[in-house]
Amino acid sequence: MTRTRGVLCPVERRGLLKGAAAVAAAPLLGACSQGASDGVGADGKVTVELWHGQVDIAKDAIQTLVTEFNRTHPRIRVDAGGGGVVSDAMLQKVTAALAAGSYPDIAYIFGSDLASIARSPRVVDLTDAMRGGPTAWNSFWAPVREAVTVNGKVRAAPALLDSLAVVYNRKLFRQAGVPFPEAGWTWDEFTDTARKLTDSGRGVFGTGWPGTGDEDTVWRLWPMIWDLGGDVVAADGRSIGFAGQGVRALDTLRRLVEDKSVYVDPKPGGEQMYQVFLGGRMAMVATGPWQLPDILDAEVDYDVVPLPSYSGRPVTISGPDTWTVFDNGSARSRAAVEFVQWMMRPEQDARWDIRAGSLPLGSATERQPQWRKHSQQTTGLRVFTDALDSARVRPVHAAYPQISQALGEAIVSVLLGRDSPTDALRRCADKADAALLIPR
């Protein structure tokens, strides 16, 4: 998933849905093949292959950390070749590698993909390594721990964390004579504010929403559904848990469409939507901390406020991503675990978060002097970090890709005025419920 500036973000999952069917076959195929050699050279050094999929700034940040690790761990050499694909395509790349029996030691896997990929017997169980590792397990935020846990076992190490909040253009608010939004505002206030700030004559939109139906389109709706009491999957596990709540959330989008106050981005990744905001022609955008470097570079007079709610209770979504470790023999597995544990240490995590435009994985990183300085110097960053207290994550469920695809189609149909919220959600439920009934 590509952020602007090349920083990779857990929300723009263009490759997620395309790879969902293929990954289901991976465990059986992968189980029939043995991985590469144990990786111990004649000099006793173990080589670990890392597929990270990062580009530009994040790639440089990873390489800097890998270089330091290799320098300070002379018995291990991490090869950060990257895997030859960006993170959007990592699911398909790893799936094919598992099928061929030649796979990396570590791969950057989106949190919402973990349940599918963890079905492979080649994925190393990290429960003991994470819960008994050098960084206290309980020091990580709850969304981090939940995102790497499948059926009670820790199946990956946390790699990156974010949350959603609303960034707004102060200049446009002042020009329109509209008060700045404040914490505790409602979705009715949001839609009303978007309408007041829309100026078709000047090409100014109140807000924007990705309109491709991918995960970037979908994940922004989950906080609305959770706030209304819904869930991704019902308690019985056989149907969606947002049949009614989804209609009301989609009706909020319908109001934005009818007011002509929402810019619907037709391109994957939300790139056009962000360009409209950076160009001073969008008043508000729901986004994550990864976007702040671009906003600062564009010299937008901005601030950040928590997401609106229906209930008055704060709620947002976090999209943690993972370092997933694969079994290529005991020596390589141990070395891979040592590397990801090192990456999770507060000192390294703070450096990675600052460069990658993400949030600290836990309270220990948040207390690091370099992070505290960075947070104090970056307008609004604290809002994203504080939002982690009310953040939820999508369930680590093998059927999630199909549920997301169905909901993405429903959202787009409402954004484009093709369907009513009720009709769109009915079709979503039919498809998603069918996916939940497939044995896994």
Automatic annotation (TrEMBL):
Protein name (record): ABC transporter substrate-binding protein
InterPro entries registered for this protein in UniProt: Bact_solute-bd_prot1, SBP, TAT_signal
A matching Pfam family: SBP_bac_1
Lineage: Bacteria, Bacillati, Actinomycetota, Actinomycetes, Kitasatosporales
SUPFAM superfamilies: Periplasmic binding protein-like II
Family matches, as Gene3D superfamilies: Periplasmic binding protein-like II (3.40.190.10)
Organism: Streptomyces liliifuscus
